[in-house]
What we know:
By secondary structure, the protein is mostly helical. It is about 70% helix and about 0% strand. The protein has one domain (about 15-75). The chain has helices at about 15-25, 30-40, 45-75.
Amino acid sequence: MTRPCPFKYFKTSREIIRLAVMMYVRFPLSLRNVEDLLHERGVDVSHEAVRFRWQRFGPMFAAEIRKRRIEGMRSSQ
C-alpha cells in the first residue's frame, strides 16, 4: 500500500514549501522574516502559511534529515 503524497492538496509547489520550512528551521529567522525573504523572491505567502506548513511538514523533513545523517554515518565507517 502506497502512502498518499502529503503535498497533494496544496497549490504551492513542494519546493516552495520545503524552502519556507527550511529557512525558518535552519536560520534564526522569524516567520515574518521568512515571509519577506520569500516575497523578495517572488513568492507571495503569509507568515501564517509558513507557520502552518512548518507545523505540518517540519517533522517529516526532520525525519528525512535524520535518516540521511544516519546513512551518511554508516557509509563513512
